[in-house]
Specification:
40% strand; 136 residues; alpha+beta; STM4215-like; five-stranded mixed β-sheet
Length: 136
């Protein structure tokens, strides 16, 4: 497998849920409010060897993060916070189903989620563990 295969596979799953990739690569600090609720940032964060290597392959245990911003204001905080948590449920059930990712990943496991609060938006952050088999 490869980074591109994993990234494109996850992006396709999120696009199937109605999200598009953000114009921002790291966070939503400089994103326009038009990107809230409908775009995502996908990041590969780190990796480590999952098991002992075999002669021509190794399993790379990787940490990935998906971020989605949701607008915040005094008129809609409660509603958008609830939308963010409901969105998390849909994302997790999509990513947890092996039939959705077995063509491009060895394993995708949900690790954690968090709803972070910023002055103008919430960030739904979903952490994934992905095992990618690298053959050489």
């Amino acid at each position: 497998m490869s980074f591109d295969l994993l990234a494109n596979g996850i992006k396709n799953l999120l696009q199937g849920l109605g999200y598009s990739e953000s114009t921002e690569a790291v966070d939503f600090a400089n994103a326009s409010s038009n990107e809230y609720s409908n775009t995502f940032i996908l990041k590969s964060i780190k990796g480590e060897i999952a098991d002992d290597s075999i002669v021509n392959q190794l399993d790379d245990r990787q940490a990935w993060e998906i971020q989605i911003a949701f607008e915040r204001s005094s008129q809609n905080d409660i509603t958008n916070r609830e939308i963010a948590v409901r969105s998390k449920d849909i994302i997790l059930t999509t990513l947890d189903k092996p039939a959705n990712w077995s063509s491009f990943a060895t394993v995708i496991k949900y690790k954690s989620w968090e709803l972070k609060e910023f002055p103008n938006y919430f960030i739904l952050s979903v952490q994934l563990e992905i095992i990618d088999r690298l053959t050489y």
